[in-house]
Amino acid sequence: MIPEIGHFALILALLVALILGSFPIIGAARGNAVWMGLARPAARVQFFLIAIAFLCLAYAFASKDYSVSYVAANSNSQLPLRFRIAAVWGGHEGSLLLWAMILSIWTVAVSIFSKHLPDDMRARILGVMGLVSVGFLLFMLMVSNPFDRLIPAAMDGRDLNPLLQDPGMIFHPPMLYMGYVGFSVAFSFAIAALLGGQLDSAWARWSRPWTTMAWVFLTLGIMGGSNWAYYELGWGGWWFWDAVENASFMPWLVGTALIHSLAVTEKRGSFKAWTVLLAIGAFSLSLLGTFLVRSGVLTSVHAFATDPRRGLFILVFLVIVIGGSLALFAWRAPTVGRGGKFGVVSRESFLLANNVLLAVASMSVLLGTLYPLFLDALGLGKISVGPPYFDTVFVPLMTPALFLMGVGPIARWKNATVPELALRLRWAFAVSVATALILPLLLGHWTPMIGLGLFLAFWIFAASAHLVRQRLSGDVATLLSRAKAVPFAWWGMVIAHIGIAVFTLGVTVVKGFESEIAVRMLPGDVAHLAGYEFKFEGVKDSVGPNYTASRGQFRVSKNGEERTMLFPEKRLYTVQNMPMTEAGISPALINDLYTSLGEPLDGGAWSVHIYHKPMVEWIWAGAALMALGGLMALSDRRYRLRRKKLTDQKILKATR
Amino acid sequence: MKLMLIVRVILMITFTQSFNAWAEEARPLQTDVVTEAQVHRLSQELRCLVCQNQTLADSHAELAQDLMQEIREMAAKGMTDQAIIDYLVARYGDFVRYRPPMKSSTYLLWLGPFVLLIFGAIGLVMMLRRREQMPADKPISPTEARKVRELLNKE
Amino acid sequence: MKRFLLPLVIFLIMVGFLAVGLHLDPREVPSPLVGKPAPSFSLPILDDPKKTFSPQQMLGQVWLFNVWASWCAACRDEHPLLVALSKANIVPIYGMDYKDTNADAQQWLLQGGNPYLANATDIDGRVGINYGVYGVPETYVIDKNGVIVYKQIGPITLEVLTNKILPLVKRLQAQ
Question: What are chain C's domains?
Answer without folding.
Answer: 33-174 (3.40.30.10)
